[in-house]
């Protein structure tokens, strides 16, 4: 009997005598052959590769491979429904210029919300250039939350934004809530609420944010050289170790450290500029700076080249 | 209001002398004097709104418990220089109804995994102070909010904004939300007794305006307490070890939110050492929660 072995949910074809042997596919005859004993386990297996090879480099609109889009079975729930696409050529339009076959609706209402959310997640991630692995993780988180239905009443966009925040954190490259707000239409308060709810629903936890997580991003956005970035990272870490800034948000401490490092170097940045990039108010930077200023001499890395010496640092 | 003055607050800053081998004892007990509003009393549901009666009743209860407490003094373990109420007997940490025998040496509740594990140690000696009590009562009749707002003093009513009359009284300093269904929410009192008294005062006001107000189902819904452990706390360490209970997001809120399961209390713990406890229905839950968290906080004391 012809049986396929595609898909994780379907039963795997195995040689009855050697269940562990990996079957060899013979594409010419469409057979699956056991390498240990030579038994033909599955015959007339449907080849799912391309029908013919395409050599063109540019993306032609019609891809002659008829296998279709790469399916995302894990995320879409293995939906096999099809839809009639927009017609090509003149015959598909009737006399008024409308397309003859219009019914592109009723795709899969159950997953429609999820697909919309995935689209939204991709849009948001593109705005801040997030890599594919974070987008995939976000999609997975969203799917888990969606299936659990515990946050059903919340706006899908809010849940998607919160999942994006969690995914960035889990991958070790946290984004501040304000950065996620900047690419989403949801308020920081709502994202924060959904974030806590999702952590509870999925029973996961995330690591605490540290000052070093944001240094490279903030410094490169400000155009600061690597030396200043290293110095700022060191300053922030030392400040937290010496407990000069108890109770301050790590973002504020990072911003103050960047300010101190940039003021000591040739590339001086104002508090307002740093505040704009970091999403911190400049009074907040001022407060944290006042706390670290007294010990400024201890905070700089030993091999730092001072453009402005420590005693000439601005004192606000 | 003299009965409130007669309640001496539990002395603050009472620490067990370092060498004293005091067994684990919650410093609250069912027979302590503050306990007039503590446990659900068998309420002689006098629907009469006489404030005088209310005060008399509470004085009586107080006296009863003073007698019970004086019986306790004979059973006290050597309390070196500590106040008489502080008797070191092992009582269960949940409140008992005052009808039961005061002296019961039930063993401690076993440490379930949902309770933060606490080593047997001396008490903290710090008592959380109650800051706010929210209670509800049913006046038992439909009310016309417009007449109440027009005739009562210190009442505001803005139906477009909120569908209730907001009334305030100065003694005890509280605010009440009075709804047209006859139900009322009283907030801002600092003790259970004051909350009940304030609610009765509001009900009296409504009664004087001509409505057949009663005093049904008075219930304390929420109690908020706060205290200071007097040392700075390492919140990062606490969130690492108690992940399933804590939530610490410095971007969202500067304090750590600790959701204790037993008793079901939410604690806001700050770096400075100040702790806010909320979500309690009875005073003992606040005390119990603080006694549970204190050893944990001591373990995360900042050393510098």
UniProtKB/TrEMBL annotation, chain A:
SUPFAM superfamilies: Cyclin-like, Zinc beta-ribbon. One of its GO terms (biological process) is RNA polymerase II preinitiation complex assembly. It catalyses: L-lysyl-[protein] + acetyl-CoA = N(6)-acetyl-L-lysyl-[protein] + CoA + H(+). Its EC number is 2.3.1.48. Residues 11-42 form the TFIIB-type domain. CDD domains: CYCLIN_TFIIB_rpt1, CYCLIN_TFIIB_rpt2. It is an enzyme of class 2 (transferase). It holds the Pfam family TFIIB. Keywords: Acyltransferase, Chromosome, DNA-binding, Initiation factor, Metal-binding, Nucleus, Protein biosynthesis, Repeat, Transcription, Transcription regulation, Transferase, Zinc, Zinc-finger. GO terms for molecular function: promoter-specific chromatin binding; protein-lysine-acetyltransferase activity; RNA polymerase II core promoter sequence-specific DNA binding; RNA polymerase II general transcription initiation factor activity; TBP-class protein binding; translation initiation factor activity; zinc ion binding. GO terms for cellular component: chromosome; nucleus; transcription preinitiation complex. The keyword Chaperone does not apply. The keyword Acyltransferase applies. It is found in: Chromosome; Nucleus. Belongs to the TFIIB family. General transcription factor that plays a role in transcription initiation by RNA polymerase II (Pol II). Involved in the pre-initiation complex (PIC) formation and Pol II recruitment at promoter DNA. Together with the TATA box-bound TBP forms the core initiation complex and provides a bridge between TBP and the Pol II-TFIIF complex. Released from the PIC early following the onset of transcription during the initiation and elongation transition and reassociates with TBP during the next transcription cycle. Associates with chromatin to core promoter-specific regions. This is Transcription initiation factor IIB. The lineage of its organism: Eukaryota, Metazoa, Chordata, Craniata, Vertebrata.
From TrEMBL, chain B:
GO terms for cellular component: nucleus. It holds the Pfam family TBP. GO terms for molecular function: DNA binding. GO terms for biological process: DNA-templated transcription initiation. Residues 57-73, 105-119 have a biased composition (Low complexity). Its main location: nucleus. It comes from the Eukaryota. This is TATA box binding protein. The lineage of its organism: Eukaryota, Metazoa, Chordata, Craniata, Vertebrata.
């Amino acid at each position: 009997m012809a049986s396929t072995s595609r898909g994780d949910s379907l039963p795997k074809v195995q040689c009855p005598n050697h269940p562990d042997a990996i079957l060899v596919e013979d594409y010419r005859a469409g057979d699956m052959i056991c390498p240990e004993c030579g038994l033909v386990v599955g015959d007339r297996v449907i080849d799912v590769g391309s029908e013919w090879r395409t050599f063109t480099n540019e993306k032609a609109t019609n891809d002659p491979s008829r296998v279709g889009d790469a399916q995302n079975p894990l995320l879409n729930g293995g939906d096999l429904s099809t839809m009639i696409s927009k017609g090509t050529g003149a015959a598909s339009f009737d006399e008024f210029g409308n397309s003859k076959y219009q019914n592109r609706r009723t795709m899969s209402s159950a997953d429609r919300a999820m697909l919309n959310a995935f689209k939204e997640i991709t849009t948001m991630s593109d705005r801040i250039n997030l890599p594919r692995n974070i987008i995939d993780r976000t999609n997975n988180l969203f799917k888990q939350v969606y299936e659990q239905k515990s946050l059903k009443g919340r706006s899908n966009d809010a849940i998607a934004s919160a999942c994006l925040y969690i995914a960035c954190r889990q991958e070790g490259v946290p984004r501040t809530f304000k950065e996620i707000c900047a690419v989403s239409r949801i308020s920081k308060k709502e994202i924060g609420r959904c974030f806590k709810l999702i952590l509870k629903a999925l029973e996961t936890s995330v690591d605490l944010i540290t000052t070093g997580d944001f240094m490279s991003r903030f410094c490169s956005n400000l155009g600061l050289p690597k030396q200043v970035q290293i110095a700022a990272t060191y300053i922030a870490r030392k400040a937290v170790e010496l407990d000069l800034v108890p109770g301050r948000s790590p973002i504020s401490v990072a911003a103050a450290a960047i300010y101190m490092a940039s003021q000591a170097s040739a590339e001086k940045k104002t508090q307002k500029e740093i505040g704009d990039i970091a999403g911190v108010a400049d009074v907040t930077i001022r407060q944290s700076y006042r706390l670290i200023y007294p010990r400024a001499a201890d905070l700089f890395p030993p091999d730092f080249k001072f453009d402005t010496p420590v005693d000439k640092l601005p004192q606000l | 209001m003299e009965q409130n003055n007669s309640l001496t607050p539990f002395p603050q800053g009472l620490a067990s002398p370092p060498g004293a081998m005091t067994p684990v004892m919650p410093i609250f007990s069912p027979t302590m004097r503050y306990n007039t509003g503590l446990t659900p009393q068998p309420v002689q549901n006098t629907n009469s709104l006489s404030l005088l009666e209310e005060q008399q009743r509470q004085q009586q209860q107080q006296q009863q418990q003073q007698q019970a407490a004086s019986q306790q003094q004979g059973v006290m373990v050597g309390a070196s220089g500590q106040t008489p109420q502080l008797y070191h007997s092992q009582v269960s940490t949940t409140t008992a109804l005052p009808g039961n025998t005061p002296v019961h040496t039930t063993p401690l509740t076993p440490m379930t995994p949902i309770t933060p594990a606490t080593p047997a140690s001396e008490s903290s000696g710090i008592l959380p102070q109650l800051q706010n009590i929210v209670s509800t009562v049913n006046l038992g009749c439909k009310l016309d909010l417009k007449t109440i707002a027009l005739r009562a003093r210190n009442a505001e009513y803005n139906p477009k904004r909120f569908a209730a009359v907001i009334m305030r009284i100065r003694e005890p300093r509280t605010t009440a939300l009075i709804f047209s269904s006859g139900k009322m929410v009283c907030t801002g009192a600092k003790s259970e007794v004051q909350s009940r008294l304030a609610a009765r005062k509001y009900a009296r006001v409504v009664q004087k305006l001509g409505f057949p107000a009663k005093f049904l189902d008075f219930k304390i819904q929420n109690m908020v307490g706060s205290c200071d452990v007097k040392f700075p706390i390492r919140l990062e360490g606490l969130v690492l070890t108690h992940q399933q209970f804590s939530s610490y997001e410095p971007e969202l809120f500067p304090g750590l939110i600790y959701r204790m399961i037993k008793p079901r209390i939410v604690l806001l713990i700050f770096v400075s050492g100040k702790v806010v406890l909320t979500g309690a229905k009875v005073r003992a839950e606040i005390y119990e929660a603080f006694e549970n968290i204190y050893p944990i906080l001591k373990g995360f004391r900042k050393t510098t």
